[in-house]
Amino acid sequence: MKTLTQAQLKEWLDALAQELTLIAPVNKQGKLLYRQVHDSDDIAWGFERTDMSPKTWLLPATEPILTIRQGEQVQIEETPAPQAKVVFGVRPCDARAALAIDALFLHKEPSDAQYARHREATTLVGLSCPQMWDSCFCTVVGGAPNATEGLDLLLTELQGDGKETLYAVQTLTEKGEGLAASMPGLEQDVSLPEPKLTEGLPTLASGDTFRAHFDDAYWQQVTERCLACRACTFVCPACRCFDVRDEVASRQPGLQVFQRLRAWDACTSAPYRRIAGGHNPRPTQHARLRNRFYCKFMYYPQDFGPLGCVGCGRCIETCPVNIDILEVIAAVEQLAASEPWACEARAAAA
Amino acid sequence: MTHINPMKPYLATIAGVRDLASGIKLLQVRLDDPAVSSSFDYRPGQFVEVSAFGVGESPFGITSIRNGNDELIEFAINRVGTVTEAIHRLDVGDKIGMRGPLGNGFPMEKFKGKNIVVLGGGIGGAPLRPVIQTVLQNRSDYGTLSIFWAARSPDLLVFTDEYDSWRAQPDTELQLTVDQATPDWPHKEGLITTLVEQVAPSADNAVSITCGPPIMIKFAMLTLQKLGFQSEQNWVTLEAKMKCGIGKCGRCNLGEVFVCTDGPVFRFDRVEGFLESFV
Amino acid sequence: MASDSVFEPKIVGFLCNWCSYAGADLAGTSRTPYPQNVRIIRVPCSGRVDPLFVLKAFQDGADGVMILGCHPGDCHYQQGNYFAQRRYALMHRLLEFTGVETARLHVDWVSASEGQKFAQVVTDFTEQVRALGPVAIKRQREAAVLPAQEVVA
Amino acid sequence: MTAVEQEIRDAARRYLEQGEVNCVIGYERGPTGKARPAFIYKAEDADRLVWSSDCNLNLVSYLHNYKHAPRRGAPVPKVAVVVRPCDARAINLLLHEQQIQRENVKVIGVACDGSEVDGQVRSACQVCRDRIPVIYDVLVGSEQAVEAPEQQDDYADVVQMEDLAEGERLEYWLQEFDRCIRCYACRQVCPGCYCFECVAEQVDPHWTSIAMEVPEKYFFHLMRAFHLAGRCVACDACEAVCPMGIPLSKLNRKLAKEVEALFGYRTGDDPKKAPPLATFDPQERLRL
């Protein structure tokens, strides 16, 4: 396996930054965000969990998907493919989240062209976690701190013997191979350290269990404190709901230019489903918050394959009123244990 | 690599506009690209996303059937929000964008040989018109056709100019009702459910097809049940807030079902199994 | 209006229907010249002008916003301009605090008979905003969709 | 368990036992050890209530969920709410704005000695002069309340910003707003932000873009701050919940400073006094 020192890694990253867009976690007034960097010294080395996920670079918070020029003729232009970019320092959970979004945006017909362009242009260079941090629960949803799925390269920090930090490089895809070709380093036999796992986490109940407890009073109870903000969905690496709207970019005599913007949206906010005329088909907050959990643990896996949650724990840390998705998982597990007949009853009713 | 962008609309030109009812316009459009236009095939019950450039996109049920070489596509547009208002301001010759056809549509083949009961409420009549047209064009393939057409008031009834031609067909009846009649209204006054219960179409070898506001669908289903219709005989087309129409944006789900890609047409027994209520 | 010549600011003027709009009319009918940078929006009362309008104007590309109403005591609705006065006294200070020059927002009282004053206010304000250059908080979309030389300053 | 905690539990239990309220809104300990809002319906659950220095939301916001009868014909629910002195001002604000009825709300006021975050007294609490809530039905912890600082709030942090050059101030706010993700947590947590449809989300008219770009964020935060001019109670919940750590209270405090200087008004002193932007004085001539 190839190994390289931190100095070599920085050198390699600096070279990458010269030729393409290099994105890495940086510290912005105390918040760890994935931003473009031009110098590897700007990277927040030693970061744990970032405050925002690298989702921003695959499904940007706002992006024009079409440009519409309306003059004598109407022209509709697609947004050109983005420049090649490398995201460095992707945590394994976030890479699995990208796979979850792929399942819907790439593999479910029709695939989303704009997302596909971002995906093609992007290489994900992972950095495995030495341990599960506070609120992390990737192991509950099928991941691991050193999982390789979805990554092109995975770097693992080796236990140093007091000397300079050493990284072991796992090459996982052709894309990763291409990128690693320019990487300095030394081929040597190393054993990768086992990450430290958090014990005593709950077990995720099956989709059927969730189905059986859809109408449980628990959902109203857990929602009571919900403020109906959108923080949990925006920090989530796997939430993918969006809004689309045309907006004026330029208005001149004889030519109007509009952009069709796509921006993140959140099923937890009240206006999300409100339709013209004011009717809201999902009128209660408990139905909205419940939808978020059900989407992640039941609808998404059933409709598209992967779970809609990767256990990064960001929503737990971010929620202003401490609505804890891990507590929800545990509660559903408990509901299932206390009412084992519910699954069959629901199936019979349906 | 090039990608076919499902979010990119085709350009279309408005070929005709007429008032259908109070606040509702019928738009006839033709796709600009002849190749796209000639291959643009759709079934009753499918919908398209119509763009009013600079304002946005909204889903509308297609309210016409494809008639050989006549490639006009029709929608009924009720003025309720920003997009529909912008579309109402357009005129013949103006450009719109169109994506589709989207959704599943009615399985008209399956309905062959059956008696058809159609329940349309208000603008909900729009996606049912192609069903009626299909039955009438292939009259011998289907059994009797009973149309129950309702609206809040007489000026909100859609396709009034076609009633006579529908009635003129063999084995076809049309029943009209409004919630609030005007003095000159010659037909029934009251809810569509009352009317259906009075006329009591037979459930034998019949299918019902309903479109209207969710609350009307809910009560129509109860009424049909009373008349002996099984849920498997009842077909509905649902509405939901949609943005993308292709199952990505996550806005239209009822439980694990996406109205835009799995529907909007559902057999009612399936709807009964939805986790989330459609009402 | 090419970009290399002198900067022509875009100015949005919210004019009260009863006094200032009539004042502007008077300036027009008496052929008093004033800069054409101002785009006038007639409002029923200066009290109708929500600070939201000001922020939106800036966002949509205005470099300066002026709100003209009746003199205190002369409001057609008795009190609208008093509300406006309080509102914009605060708004000015908030804009200043967030780094937008207060000189970009001008609130003044112009009566129906003050055509001259209207022209003077518009002239002074236009020059004041011209000196400041373009506003920093406007959307940058135009540049993204038009070739550089076509972007109207 | 502290004495304050015990008093809160006792008050909650009493209210529920005597049927004076349907629900008590307080704090409980979440699974990660953080304090979080709790809704207590049964007297025996009152022991879930806690009080600690990280109870830094404003629970008065939740009263908006209890304004209306749950169904036609049912009575409007009666609730008790645990408040700090700053939160209590929001009760006066909502009373003035006729959002709540006094008879439907019981106020469990907690005498405050400032809440802490990570062992540091929050900046809002350092300058706060309130120790006893302006309105309460039950007062707890009064003997523990520390002396209020004699010195008046001098808005030193605001003045420091004001003293920066114009360009520096703009740069500062653009940097801060750049991080904003428009999650609207600041708006949702605020007791004074209760519009049914916020201008930030209104579709018709479409005030602001859905884009997460700095001009829209600037628009949103200024608009929000302005809507709270003379209405902000300085509870600082907006800043406490911001996932991006944006110093929102600076905006609110700037306006509070100006409102105090221009109109001599402080939010929530008296439910009968209108906020300054909802009233006027014909004699007044202000610098514009």
Gross morphology of chain A is globular
In whole angstroms, the N-to-C terminal distance of chain B is 43 Å
Radius of gyration of chain A, taken over Cα atoms and rounded to an integer in Å = 22 Å
Instruction: Quickly name the level 1 CATH class of the largest domain in chain B.
Output: Alpha Beta
Number of helices of chain B: 8
β-strand percent of chain A reads 15-25%
CATH architecture of the largest domain in chain B: 3-Layer(aba) Sandwich
Physical arrangement of strands within the biggest beta sheet of chain B:
10-9-8-7-11-12-15
Principal-axis shape of chain B = globular
Query: What structural category characterises the helix and strand content of chain A?
Result: alpha+beta
Number of strands of chain A: 12
Summed over residues and divided by their number, the pLDDT of chain B gives a mean of 90
| Domain module tally of chain B | 2
What does this structure look like?
- The complex is a heterotetramer of chains A (350), B (279), C (153) and D (288).
- Chain A is α+β, with helices and mostly antiparallel strands and 350 residues long.
- Chain A contains eleven helices and twelve strands.
- By secondary structure, chain B is an alpha/beta fold.
- Chain B is built from eight helices and 15 strands.
- In chain B, strands 10-9-8-7-11-12-15 form a seven-stranded mixed beta sheet. In chain B, strands 4-3-6-1-2-5 form a six-stranded antiparallel beta sheet. Chain B has a two-stranded antiparallel ribbon with strand order 13-14.
- Chain C is globular.
- A four-stranded parallel beta sheet of chain C has the order 2-1-3-4, with helices on both faces.
- Chain C has 153 residues and is an alpha/beta fold.
- Chain D folds into two domains: 3-144, no CATH class; 156-278, no CATH class.
- Chain D has helices at 3-17, 85-96, 123-126, 156-162, 166-179, 185-189, 214-227, 237-241, 248-263, and strands at 23-29, 35-40, 79-83, 105-110, 116-117, 120-121, 138-140.
- In chain D, β1 and β2 (35-40) form a beta hairpin.
- The longest helix of chain D has 16 residues, at 248-263.
- Chains in contact: A-B, A-C, A-D, C-D.
- At the A-B interface, β4, β5, α3, β11 and β12 of A face β4 and α2 of B.
